[in-house]
Write a structure and sequence with these properties.
Elements lengths: L1 H21 L9 H35 L1
Helix pairs in contact: 1-2
Length: 67
C-alpha cells in the first residue's frame, strides 16, 4: 500500500512535468506565478515519492538481512 501510494505520487509528478514540457498551450490562463508554483509542487512531490520509495526499499533490505 505504501509503495503504491509513493509510485502514484511519482507518476503524478512526472505527468505534470510532461504536460508542462510537451503541451505548453495547456498552461493557458495560468500566470507565471501559478506555473512556478505548480512546478515547485510537482518537484517536491517527485522528491517526496523518491524518498518514500528509497526508504521502503531500505526497510525491505534491512528486513531481508535479519532473516
Amino acid at each position: 500500500m505504501l509503495k503504491a501510494g509513493a509510485e502514484h505520487k511519482k507518476a503524478k509528478a512526472l505527468l505534470t512535468f510532461e504536460l508542462f514540457n510537451d503541451y505548453p498551450a495547456g498552461i493557458g490562463d495560468h500566470t507565471t506565478g501559478d506555473f512556478y508554483k505548480n512546478c515547485e509542487e510537482a518537484l517536491q512531490m517527485y522528491i517526496d515519492s523518491k524518498d518514500e520509495l528509497d526508504a521502503l526499499e531500505e526497510l525491505k533490505m534491512n528486513r531481508d538481512e535479519q532473516i
